[in-house]
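Task card 7
Instruction: Convert sequence to structure tokens.
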Amino acid sequence: MNRNILHFLAAFLLLAASALVVVSLSSSKSPAPVAADSTVSPVVPAPRHPAPDIPQSISLCGEPVPLDAFGVRESLDRELVVNAYHHSSTILYLKRANRWFPVMEPILEEEGIPADMKYLAVIESGLAQVVSPAGASGFWQFMKRTAPAYGLEVNGEVDERYHVAASTRAACAYLREAYERFGSWSLAAASYNMGMAGVSRELEEQGVTTYWDLHLNAETARYVYRLLAIKEVFEDPARFGFDLADEALYPPFEVREVEVSQTIPNLAEFAREQGTNLKALKALNPWLTDDFLPISAGNSYRIALPV
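Output:
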């Protein structure tokens, strides 16, 4: 085969290879259209996450919040964002509130404490019978050493920090005392986190008179703003994207109460005699911390039982 023929074949093969590359690139850039009966799913737009609107005005227990004061608007904005998008926790708070607010609200009203203070229990415990790393317990997170000062019984068999009604009354007693001391519900709320002595010390050292002007530790600096954010979400859940049907909320417990004035040696046996079981008895009376209940002469307890 002469040299001219070889050159011709080489040029032909090179041209053919170039054509294949062009076709390959063209097909990768322009995929064939999907047939009408294709099973390929359409592209779904990513969910939107709009920032919550800050209200034009807001109050706590009837006291106006100075949104134009230094740092106040942004501090509230932070807590609104956190609680509006902390979906799992906030949904549980809303569900539980339907069960427990009807227990707490009449007590707050009877004790002369503004209804907004029920949100303290939400930010303290999420309306769950929890124990903090420091040992604070129950909905209102009382410490063992301070609980008796506000009328709660705490011993080996009874711990009324877990009694929703009793601990709500104790919280009312604390808040009333704090309000009488500071003349401000926002400062009273702040003191629930850092103590009355701590708030008094900071007010004096910094020469200010309101919570909104105080420079505080990170936890207390966020505390009242978190209370306000929870209040905003609870008062209009749909505005923040929480759309819970009534049947999704936890209903209040239907109970009957029996008064006992003699020692119960075995709570499981007592529960069976009352037509229920220890599981239900403990769920309705988490303040019963042992499996028996000693009762001294002249004393008595009211125990909740399923209807």
